[in-house]
Predict the structure.
Amino acid sequence: MKAKTLRRILNLWPPFLFAGIRVETLDDYRYARVKLKLAWYNRNYVRVHFGGSLFSMTDPFWMIMVLKCLGDEYVVWDQAGEIRFVSPGREDVFAEFHVDDAVLDEIRAATGGGEKCLRWFETEVRTASGEVVAVVRKQLYVRRKRR
């Protein structure tokens, strides 16, 4: 599936659509930019971004992007995830994801003999002015498919 098609599907996917999450950019599975708007329906009790929405806006991207970049010869799963709240989110926030060739080469080298690779990826959720609202870490499980 082309990245642009997946972007359109994700923007209509109910967990994103009804949380105010929008995939603004998904380029060749190497770069993504996601926006979470602050609205009455995704605020918590103290009127800042609901933590579940902050985590959701980052959830699928590392797994999908690494899987698509490595190709069908690999199994890629989310192994673990964590979020650290840094400051209150009182406005729209953004997250960006970059998959570099160096990371892909590192994973290929680690899995070359059939071993699994557990690798952490980190994403900062920021306001338009650059203030960090949260830091999300996802650990991926990657290995070559057995033949």
Residues 3-144 form a domain with the Thiol Ester Dehydrase; Chain A fold (CATH 3.10.129.10). The first strand starts at residue 21 and ends at 27.
